[in-house]
Write a structure and sequence with these properties.
The complex is a heterodimer of chains A (about 110) and B (about 110). Chain A is mostly beta strands. Chain A is built from no helices and eleven strands. Chain B has no helices and eleven strands. In chain B, strand 7 and strand 8 form a beta hairpin. Classes of the chains: A mainly beta (about 110), B mainly beta (about 110).
């Protein structure tokens, strides 16, 4: 079936470093991907999305890269700050387009 | 902060009881989806409501049911609660029943004892 998974369950970085969170997906027909940030006690917060006709998309301090050949996407956070500490999920729609399929998440810890 | 609000924020119920969770969608959004998030896991899709009709369902038993009202707010009902139903229940609203940007509420933490 369809699946979306993250490579590492945890990532620890120093403040100011760049962070890279990776995600793999199984459905080659997927054409839309979203990254969410979830802080403790809160719901997932939309960060950035990308459609399959793009390889790269940039936001404020974040960049998403999509490699359709190997079915992999990554979220890069520049100059990571303590406020970036959270669980990050990649998600993609199911084939019907009615639901998002989430991976288990990567917990990013930023130390000062 | 998104415009999606959920109530209550926390709830404790006894096994076998029934529970109703509520969600108000973001203004202008006609689609509401419900997700269950167990501790340490990603959200799992329960079902979606689009213009008051169920528009898709995940792998959850019939004791999970829902409603959407004309103002697009929604309820999630769970009957015959089991201990494994303890989780964070998330509501997400979006415009139309597509995979466009979905906004999540803060969730309802349900504990079944």
């Amino acid at each position: 079936g369809e699946s979306v998974g993250l490579h590492l369950p945890t990532l620890s970085v120093q403040e100011g470093d760049n962070s890279i969170i990776n995600c793999a997906y199984s459905n080659s027909a997927s054409d839309y991907f979203i990254w969410y940030k979830q802080e403790s006690g809160k719901g997932p917060q939309f960060i950035i999305d990308i459609r399959s006709n793009m390889d790269k998309r940039q936001g404020q301090r974040v960049t998403v890269l999509l490699n359709k050949t190997v079915k992999h996407l990554s979220l890069q956070i520049a100059a990571t700050q303590p406020g970036d500490s959270a669980v990050y999920f990649c998600a993609a729609p199911n084939q019907a387009g009615t639901a998002l399929i989430f991976g288990k998440g990567t917990t990013l810890s930023v130390s000062s | 902060e998104t415009g999606v609000t959920q109530s209550p924020t926390h709830l404790i119920k006894t096994r076998g009881q029934q529970v109703t969770l509520r969600c108000s969608s973001q203004s202008g959004h006609n689609t509401v989806s419900w997700y269950q998030q167990a501790l340490g896991q990603g959200p799992q899709f329960i079902f979606q409501y689009y213009r008051e009709e169920e528009n898709g369902r995940g792998n959850f038993p019939p004791r999970f049911s829902g409603l959407q009202f004309p103002n697009y707010s929604s309820e999630l009902n769970v009957n015959a609660l089991e201990l494994d139903d303890s989780a964070l229940y998330l509501c997400a609203s979006s415009l139309e029943s597509t995979e466009t940007e979905a906004f999540f509420g803060q969730g309802t933490r349900l504990t079944v004892v």
